[in-house]
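Notebook entry, structure prediction.
Reason for the run: the old model in the group folder had no record of what sequence produced it. Starting over properly, with the input documented here first.
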Amino acid sequence: MSESAQKVAVVTGAARGIGAATALRLARDGFAVAVLDLDETACADTVAAIGKEGGTALAVGVDVADAARAEAAVERVAAELGAPLVLVNNAGITRDNLLFRMTEEDWDGVLGVHLRGAFLMTRACQKHMTAAGWGRVVNLSSTAALGNRGQVNYSAAKAGMQGFTKTLAVELGKFGITANAVAPGFIATEMTAKTAERVGLSFEDFKARAAANTPVGRVGEPADIAHAVSFFAGEAAGFVTGQVLYVAGGPRG
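New structure, fully documented this time:
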């Protein structure tokens, strides 16, 4: 077990994709991991993968945009695993459309899961971190924060995550808590596969097009993001806070 043994990490949106890869990586780092997603049964594969490697994991179903449910989920984690000292706010949805076609429901839904969800989960976890005098908050932003056609809601949410992160760093630093953000570029996940379908391309063609526009010549994988989160979650990042790390295969930001 590493230096993070006995610490508990919470990863939202961890049933698949970036969240699942992050949960598995943190378990390998020695954390007990709470695997959160909207559907608790959907977390089974992630929990099983962690258990297969000898790690400890707990599946918790929660709508992170619901204040009472977010609070209850965190208290369940504290009761069954221990005080959550690492929080990865990864839960997110897309409802892409051009501005003139976007509905209020699509705007509110995306901002609700990303920003409201991150706020509620962080508010619920920070009291445990403050009591321990140690904590790590890692928020998932995106290169979309820099602007992306057809994603005015998602771009606004991901830009908001960066301001949220920097303010957390200012407010929580004196309690031994750091807050940082990871901003992925194109990552091969179910979400990007759905985007390919929406624009009428095969996923392989969609990835090839993205790779051709990426300096390192490939698209990202969920593990690429998990590695970055792992750094921010560890002891070695104790003097790094309020930062946004673009993991995008090229210079961004």
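Summary: The two ends are 36 Å apart (CA to CA).
The old model has been moved to the deprecated folder.
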